[in-house]
Amino acid sequence: MAVMVPNPLEQVYDRHAGALFAFLLNLTCSEPDTRDLLQELFLKLARKPGLLAKAQNERSFLYRTAHNLFIDHYRRKRSREDRHETASEEITLLFETPVENALDPVEIESALSQLPEDQRAVLHLKIWENYTFQQISEVLEISLNTAASRYRYALDKLREHLRPVYEQRND
Asked: Is there a contact between 66 and 39 (Cβ–Cβ < 8 Å)?
């Protein structure tokens, strides 16, 4: 009986696909687009096997590559549609914090979808992946101060959008 040895790309997929899917879904707000981008990412790795071998941090490299693929995707999409139509696509709930007990998930999804893509990316990496601002700056190839300010702006915008809803609900 022959023992099947997993393909290295399969191992990478098994280790990281779930987290990459969540990251891309938060950016695209579209499950079909997320699946396409994830497929594109792994096709890129399959076509260039040495690409991942050069990475110092496998997970950070994959996030950076996924983010770059999203940016390319977004630019293509934006040329076909205006930004308002893109923001109105179906959104999947990913915001799992204690605030969800007080607010309807649709309200949270709506607030998240109104954030600019660059702020959603930072927010996702900080909240769901527990990345430091240093790690975020490396993954997204931005300065440490830019990562921190995008996070702060995202929280401010979420607070601004959700506070009236929260207060109305708790009156």
From this structure: no
Alpha-carbon span 78 to 82, nearest angstrom: 6
For residues 90 and 96, give the distance between their C-alpha atoms in angstroms, rounded to a whole number.
18
Given a contact cutoff of 8 angstroms between Cβ atoms, the answer to whether 151 and 73 are in contact is no
Which tokens go with 130?
Answer: 């527990």
Q: Residue 44: which of 76, 12, 15 has the closest Cα?
A: 12
Sign of CA dihedral 148, 154, 156, 159: negative
What residue has token string 């309200």? 107
Q: Residue 3 to residues 14, 35, 136, 142: CA-CA distances in angstroms? A: 19, 31, 40, 45
Contact criterion met (CB below 8 Å) for 49 and 89: no
Does the structure show a pLDDT above 60 at 153? yes
Residues whose CB is less than 8 angstroms from the CB of residue 165 and which lie 6 or more positions away in sequence, other chains included? 103, 107
130: left (phi over 0), alpha (psi -120 to 50) or beta: left
Mean pLDDT, the chain, as a whole number? 80
Tokens 């506070």, residue located: 163
What pTM was computed for the model?
Answer: 0.58
